[in-house]
Prior knowledge:
The chain has 254 residues and is an all-alpha fold. It has one domain. The chain has helices at residues 2-11, 25-30, 35-53, 59-74, 77-87, 94-102, 108-127, 133-146, 148-154, 162-171, 176-194, 196-221, 226-248.
Amino acid sequence: MKNLLLAIITFTRIPFPQKDLNLDMDELYKSMAFFPFCGFIIGLFCSAILYSLQNILPVNILILTVIFIMTIITGAFHEDGLADVCDSYGGYTKEKKLEIMRDSRIGTFGVLGLIMLIFFKFFLLKEISLEILPIAIITSLTIGRFCVIPIIKLYSCLERDEGEQNYVSHILNFNYRTLFIAFLFTIIITGLVLGFIKALLILFIVQIIILLIGIYFKHSLGGISGDVCGTLEQIGELIVYLLFIFFQNGIIFI
Length: 254
């Protein structure tokens, strides 16, 4: 229970008392098993908002409201990482990219990246029927968070700065039991709301794509960082939405 609360406190803005929690690095990497469950909690809350407002708000406003709530609950944690990674494209060398990512200010590429992210989320969610949209949101937020965990385990730590080196290097020490627990959470949650065969297929497709994108970051930046993980999580969410559209339109049959 302590590790679950630690994951919620670290990766969401949901208020919980922290006086009895040990916020050291060893406890943090143990809490990784609950990353997908955090996504489920956020997805459940967003789905509740969706159900309660779908007969009140126009569809466009409803979807924008859901996107806004997603961002507020997480404190734009993953979006901030995506903005930093997008800004790094202004650098022509690995060293320059890392220097740009260390800068707390947001640049042109970061702004464009966030705008494109919101556009993609909005138009993908709009294409999914309201009947299955809550299922798509829960699945996306759960699988998106799981798919980053194998990346953290498989790829080397990016020594962007001493603090993040310490943070990511501790996370890299998590064992396969943590990965297995995270997988169980993911497949049970998504299997119950979606069906286990379809859930496994979506998880497999998204994980393969995220692993391939991770290879790109490993070669272009020299490894992974918290910003890269945030970027991959957001990409994973978008892929899930796209797959839901494919299923809905009969492009993929199962």
